[in-house]
Amino acid sequence: MASHLAVAVSVSAAAPVSSPRVVAASAALGLATPSRARRALRARVPSRGASVVCQAQGGQDTAIEVPDVSKSTWQSLVVESELPVLVQFWASWCGPCKMIDPIIGKLSKEYEGKLKCYKLNTDENPDIATQFGIRSIPTMMIFKNGEKKDAVIGAVPESTMVTCIEKYVVS
Question: Is the pTM of this model over 0.90?
C-alpha cells in the first residue's frame, strides 16, 4: 500500500541544533527534537559527516491515481453508471484525505470491473457536497443505480472500506 519514499539529508554531527539540516534530519528520523537528532547522528556515525536515508519499504512505486468527478461529469459517471460507484469527497488541504487516498487507489485497482472509484473535490464542487450532506471529509459514498447506498466518514482502515464495498459489488 505504501509507495516508496526516500529522504536523504546530509548533516555534520557538529552542526548547530537549529541548523535547517539538523531539523530536517530530526523529521526524517522521526525524532521529537533536533537535539535528539544530533545526538542520534553522533551515536550512529563516528565520522564528522553523516548521511541519513529513510525509505518506506513495500508497496508500489507510485500511488494509483483515482479519477476526478465534477458537477459537469456527475450524471454520466455516477448516476448513469452500470456498476456501483465509490466517490471520495475530499479537499486538497485535508490531511486525513491524503491518508486515505492510497487506500482508495488500491481498492479501485482491486475492484476494477466491479466498482468505479472517483474523487470529488468539495471546494471545487460545493453544490454536490451540499446535496449529499457532506459535513466532514474525507467521506466515501457508495452509489448503486444512481442512488446513495452507504457512506463511510473519516480516514478508516482498508478493512472497513472493503466491508462496505463488498455489500454492493457482484462477486
Answer: no
Residues classed as catalytic: 94, 97
**Residue pair 145/92 in contact by the 8 Å Cβ criterion:** no
For the chain, how far is it from start to end, CA to CA, in angstroms? 23
- Is there a contact between 90 and 121 (Cβ–Cβ < 8 Å)? yes
Give pLDDT tens digits for 18-70.
Answer: 555 555 555 555 555 556 555 654 555 444 544 444 444 454 446 789 999 99
Give the span between the Cα atoms of 67 and 63, in whole angstroms: 12
The residue count for the chain:
171
Alpha helices in the chain (DSSP H): 20-29, 34-44, 74, 95-110, 126-131, 158-166
Does 14 score more than 60 pLDDT?
A: no
Give the pairing type, strands 5-12 and 49-56.
Answer: antiparallel
Residue 157 pLDDT greater than 80, yes or no: yes
Residue 56, amino acid: A
What are the C-alpha distances in Å from 31 to residues 3, 10, 17, 21?
22, 16, 13, 14
